[in-house]
Amino acid sequence: MAGVYPEDVDKLLEAQKSKLEGLQDSDTEALISALLIAAVLSLMLALWFSKGLERLFRIYQTEIKQKQQKLSDNAKQLQVAACVFENSSEGIMVTDPQYRLLAVNDAFTTITGYSEREVLGKKPTFMKSGRHDEAYYKEMWRSLDEEGVWRGEIWNRRKDGSLYPQWLTINVSRDKDDNLTHYIGTFVDISERKEAEQKLRYLSEYDSLTDLPNRRLMSQRVDRAIRIASRHSEKKVALLLVDLDRFKNINDSLGHAAGDRVLQQIARRLATMVRADDTVCRMGGDEFSILMTDPDLPAAAAVMSERIVEIITEPVLIAGRRLVLTPSIGVALYPEDGEDFDTLTRNADTALYHAKDHGRNTFKFYTDEMNQQVSQRLDMEYGLRQALENCQFQLHYQPQYDLSDGSLYGCEALIRWYKPGGGYQRPDQFIPIAEETGLIKQIGQWVLMTACEHGACWYKKGYGEINVAVNLSAKQFGDQLLETVQEALLLTGLPPRLLTLEITESILMGNADSAVEILFELKQLGVGIALDDFGTGYSSLAYLKKFPLDKLKIDRAFIDGLPDDMDDSAITSSIIDIARNLDLQTVAEGIETAAQRDHLISEGCDFVQGYFYARPMPVTNFELLLRSDTNGAGEAKTAEIDS
Questions:
Q1: Which of 468, 483, 521, 587 has CB 3.0 to 4.6 Å from 455, enough for a Cys bridge?
Q2: Cβ-contact 565, 530 below 8 angstroms
């Protein structure tokens, strides 16, 4: 320890202590700085971490809320789906891939009658109706396999065993991996719709009055029969048109309700007489048609037509009355008379009119000659319309003489048609066509007006009181007749007493009560009424005394045989006696000989007309006759004027 002194040691220790204390202070400051820095960094890190956690938490929270919302939405959708499933008006059934029922709704139970407990676990095939073949179901499964859906009408069986139609839709349900999980079927009962469709089809294809097929359905069946016959030469087709003669008289006299009952009875008769392969149709009004497919045609059609005549002419009992009807029948054959429904119908109609022209209550087959005549009728109808427009009609007058003194009493107005390039047309050719087409109304009005004009002119010229007779058609005899006659008298100035309207028995008998009323109204105007062609129609004495008549015209059919034919003589004498007792005058038509005239004078007939006195003559010739001396019989004078 030499050389070391305690004082040095103390100083050294003191210095070392000071140094250590300085170092300690410096370390403390560094530590504090480090701790401060570490604290700041830790705080910063904690803040950053907390921010990250907060952001991550918010993300998680958002995802949780979204999942909760999705779960809530799914729950709502499931609730809605369950509500729809249970409350749908459509039946719903769900099956597994093995077609076993997993669920059905209430509508399924209501429609099928099966409860949920009865069907779960079963295959829907237990409801099969048996109306569909295997090919039908194969097509269904093909559509499900290839397209994933099938829709169609299918018949199934209810629990009570009844069959019903349903509209069924089957959808295939698959998972995200495209694995089949379910079959879902929805269906509705379409029974009411099918019934409505059948009703509409009935209304469109059947006649509601007679329950027979109508023209539309007949057209389809005829065309189908023609198609079959075109492929098989042994198949033959005939179309028969049946029209009830003068059926309008029943409607006019007994009313349309009675007419409908008659049509129903005739329809039942026709329906019972045809074979199962034949079709009876009501074409409209009182016209029926029958479709026949028979290898023995046309002979079979002739036999059928004869049977129709027999069965229709059997009396019909309506409202306590026995009515007897007759048919006219026209027959057209495929392929001779047409190769489609319209052509066959048109040609059968042509044959029908020929049956009417040949006396009715018969049948006619169509021929080309008939078609030619129909074309002529059409030409005639067109010509009549042209004649009205171009004033081609004329009036000729046949003089009427008073048998008591041989004086010229009056005349009958007779229409004539002069067709440029065709000469005079016979009235018996164009009058029936005018009747059928309704043109007779216009023609009749023209005749009445023109005859009144001529009569008024002769009266004003001082030729005396010449009575003018005008024939009335059945078409004119209606509600407007009184106004037409009043207008003609007013416009022309002809005194009503100089006009005689000639009507036929058929007009009076069509609707007797209405006819009486109209005749009394005409009589109040002051015109005369003559019953034309008496003795050739009904000739009912009971009706005769009921009508306000002035004259009876004796048809020439009873004059031709006078005076030698005993029957004609007796009939003529009886008519004159009846007229005298009923205070009626008589007019004999068709006088051609002096012997006929003398016989009528002896029987007490009042007036006559005929070729013995004069042929019908133009108005200018008749006026010349009026100017001449008409006190004698006038044979020579009228012949000279008419020549």
A1: 468
A2: no
Residue 86 has pLDDT above 70, yes or no: no
Strands (E) in 366-478, as ranges, are 393-402, 408-419, 423-425, 467-471
Pairing of strands 408-419, 423-425: antiparallel
State yes or no: pLDDT of 24 exceeds 90. no
Give the helix, strand, coil percentages of the chain, each rounded to 5: 55, 20, 25
> Residue 71 — pLDDT band, cuts 50, 70, 90?
low
Q: Cβ distance 552 to 500 under 8 Å?
A: no
Residues 243-299 pLDDT 10s:
998 888 888 778 888 889 999 999 999 998 888 888 999 998 899 999 998 887 888
CB-CB contact of 396 with 617 (8 Å):
yes
Instruction: Decide the pairing of beta strands 607-608 and 393-402.
Output: antiparallel
**CA 353 to mean position of chain CA atoms:** 23
CA distance 480 to 494: 20
The answer to whether the CB of 270 falls within 8 A of the CB of 242 is yes
User: How many whole angstroms separate alpha carbon 24 and alpha carbon 196?
Assistant: 113
pLDDT tens for each residue of 104-154: 888 888 888 898 888 888 888 888 888 888 888 889 889 888 888 998 888
Give the pairing type, strands 467-471 and 316-318. Answer: unpaired
pLDDT digits (tens, 9 = 90+) for 304-337: 888 999 999 998 888 778 888 999 999 999 988 8
| pTM score | 0.52
Q: For residue 555, what are its two tokens?
A: 């048809």
Per-residue pLDDT for 482 more than 50?
Answer: yes
> Which long-range contacts (C-beta less than 8 Å, at least 24 apart) are formed by 474-478?
474/435, 474/504, 474/506, 474/507, 474/510, 475/435, 475/438, 475/440, 475/441, 475/444, 476/440, 476/441, 476/444, 476/445, 477/503, 477/507, 477/515, 477/518, 478/518
CA distance 423 to 21: 166
Q: Which helix (H) or strand (E) holds 236?
A: none
- Tell me the one-letter amino acid at 564: D
Rounded to whole angstroms, the Cα distance separating 99 from 607 reads 102
- CA-closest candidate to residue 91, choices 116, 110, 78: 110
pLDDT digits (tens, 9 = 90+) for 191-230: 888 877 777 777 778 888 998 999 999 999 999 999 998 8
Residue 640 has pLDDT above 50, yes or no: no
Phi and psi at residue 12, to the nearest 5°: -65, -40
Kindly state the tokens that stand for 498: 């100089």
Pairwise CA distance, residues 203 & 489, whole Å: 51
CA distances from 633 to 408, 417, 533, 572, 630 (A): 8, 30, 24, 22, 7
* Longest CA–CA separation in the chain, Å: 219
What is the three-class DSSP state of 384? Answer: helix
DSSP state of 426: P
Using DSSP's 3-state secondary structure scheme, residue 151 falls into strand
Per-residue buried b or exposed e for 178-199, using 16+ beta carbons within 10 Å of the residue's own CB: eeeebbbbbbbbbeeeeeeeee
- pLDDT category, 637, cuts 50, 70, 90? very low
- Report the C-alpha gap between 220 and 372 in whole angstroms: 28
